[in-house]
């Protein structure tokens, strides 16, 4: 039985940083080879970063990818890693257009390239727009083992290249991925990896990207399934990791070189199988090491917190910023953002600003100061009363215009501090506010990044309690003041205002929003689910009206399928209303 | 020879307004039938509006389209229009998913439905994301004439349904469209319509949408080509119009019901042809009316001005606003926006605001006032010095932070007027500024719509002169003060500032930007084109850095292929630079 030691490099790339990403491949390959690996696999689009969207169309970027790939093959050889088979994702380009490619590097050369076949074009994905699909399946023989390669969506669609590899026969499948995190996504991903291994009749090694890129977070969670579909190795979430495992493989038995066309309304062409022999002889038999202890999946809150911390940290750092500033209002949203920011960047990189107006309560100021003390971050106070007053008097503002001016004056103030001191401004709004439009554009929506943009209000509270409990368990000071969690939420833009003057109770509101936004349920569906018809009508009206505001909101870490972001595209001008106006 | 009178209803629909769009179909069909039309064709996605993006995924919206379609067939019958064949676009939905459909209504029923086959997925289009492609070709016999229907992109791709119709034989093709305007697009569209008529071996009637939807403008320009490809009728641009023409047709000669598969790497399945006989007998022979005089295509400036006026008017009106407000700075950009706004909405709907700071020149104020006088619009002055002063003193602002505060104080001021009086705020920046990032987010970028977002600075000047000349030719007061056109451009955020302190000369800058943005040329290409290497480097650096600012900019009318908007998707976090940093 041939043996191989495989290393899955679960790394954190950056879009566009071809040189940095290449150098990362060299570093991790050296580590893997020093550890005796015969195969080293990196995630989808490692050299380019992922997702690169319309950067695919820029020929000079494709040329830079090609040059870097060829240089990388030579550099790996020079590094003494030429005997390892290195699988690396990159942007390809040929006569058919841009490609989402996985190249196999060996002995200083690019020995084979696979172009992703199934191009996802839903949710956050635009791949049918950005890439031409591939129809060739390279299989390389390394140390007597036939290795096939597929990319991410290829395993999420039935009847694709994995089935084809299974039919022609393959001894191991490497699947490279940039599979974005969603809450509980591993409930789908793990059984899928198992099922595809069974379909291929061979072990499947699944390496995923880790880290964040704009709104997307990649959780890692790389896996190896054996030919029977058992998960035999698993990497942690939200951390770079080299997952090394020794595999004993079955080899041989291939009879055909072409797979018959798939059935279905659109007939798929046959895949062309291209075989390359790199090394026909198995490696000398060795004593396999025990498999690494599989990483335990995280709890729901732990996982969400990890996603939010990763999203914020990478957005700030990958954009070249070192510190953030935002309003500390004393409320729960800014408190959770502050705890996230300190976990992501450290207390010295967080600059809280209290901006009391004439309507701010005493407890707001004291809770904000308490938060800063608990976190050990920077904290200053700038009253906005004088600025607000000039606008209100000079323009004779009343009602909503007066309320909004307070929020906007704060936005200008934070941007001035950002321009003067170089901090990146965070917007602290949550998903519930964003859904119903309970925010001021150019006011509290000001910022380069919105850490809890995809977190419903009820989950904000849950995360706050979870984070405080976690601190207590570790014997640390709970970061979030109890009063910020327990008090009645208020925007404090007029006397004695509370959120529930304008909104239904959050526990009901969040459930209706989840049905309407995530579940794509209509008015009738929700009423049939047992919600009060008047409440449903009220909520749906608010959501439908708020589309323009959502456009103006900064990006934020996505943790659900239908986050309000680039994966949800709606016209701005639109008279369709679930409820007739 | 059978005869038919065909009417192309070039109408202005609104996304989501199913009831309004249906009622428009009834009104225009009545007009056409009163004029003796046997066939009446409406644009692509008439009932739903276009583009509806992810609204396709909402099942309740698809159900509303289906109900409205069936009701419309009954209503047309009740209106006495049941003998006319009415071709209308709408959102369809079946087991395969959402469809971009054209239904044929006759005698109170939906007699056939075609689902668009070629789904564009580039530029502004997301149709492969939003629709399942169709593989059935209905052909209905009306008055002895076999009529086939195709939709928009179906004629822009080779080897599609038009070729299939040509092979099975058809006597007339109706092509319904929502084909967005771009400068000089008719240079491509007119020869294409001719070529497809020849390919079908039959006259092709091309009806296009007119009016604007968010960033897209549809220019109309509906056409009829005879079987030899000659354009025999043409509707005007940027106006609703009923184009009626009498056609003498050749009938018969069909031999097969299925077209062979297309060649190529992805084999297309055969189209299934479905024939329906509505009326086998030709209409009694009648004396054809002379063809209407074809509308003359507009000059370049006239066409662009028409697109910008249409874009602004429909954005404001379709979003339910009645008036606009924005800063009158005395400069060329706000002057052109003001002239556009008055042409689009009338002088009583335009509220100019002068917001002088301590750095504003005397000529700025007088030019702004002169502009308002020429246009006859509302005009008021609000000095911003006091507001700016508080920020600068309280936060000890200097340099760029001080400059930006002026722009942001103006943004807050305009939004306060908007909240207090209900005007929609316009952002007056041009494409050149947006490309290089020469603007202040939350400052001059504030607004719900940016009328000249896709107009380069040099074209802004050209349009100003053209608009003034047009006024003089009509014996009217030229709307734009000569001084606003001829003076040195300045943001006036510090003493004696001019745009060219920060930017290359606009005439060179715009050419380099056109090559980089529209032409997708790289650094080397531009240097090979003869541009100064240092200049190219400087410009490309600015464009690459400004991506985040562009994200925060409001939507604006698109007049080029690569407008900065939804059709150009790039990551925010991105270290790829055409020029190494």
Automatic annotation (TrEMBL), chains A, B:
EC number assigned by the record: 6.3.5.1
Record keywords: ATP-binding, Ligase, NAD, Nucleotide-binding
Domain of life per record: Bacteria
Residues binding ATP, per UniProt: 327-334, 428
Active site (catalytic residues): 44 (proton acceptor), 44 (proton acceptor), 116 (for glutaminase activity), 152 (nucleophile)
Binding-site residues for deamido-NAD(+), renumbered to this chain: 404, 433, 549
Stretches for region Disordered: 472-499
Molecular-function GO terms, alphabetical: NAD+ synthase (glutamine-hydrolyzing) activity
Catalytic activity: deamido-NAD(+) + L-glutamine + ATP + H2O = L-glutamate + AMP + diphosphate + NAD(+) + H(+)
InterPro entries: C-N_Hydrolase, C-N_Hydrolase_sf, Gln-dep_NAD_synthase, NAD/GMP_synthase, NAD_synthase, Nitrilase/CN_hydratase_CS, Rossmann-like_a/b/a_fold
CN hydrolase domain sequence ranges: 4-249
Function, in words: Catalyzes the ATP-dependent amidation of deamido-NAD to form NAD. Uses L-glutamine as a nitrogen source.
Stated family: Belongs to the NAD synthetase family. In the C-terminal section; belongs to the NAD synthetase family.
Name this polypeptide is given: Glutamine-dependent NAD(+) synthetase
Species name: Saccharopolyspora endophytica
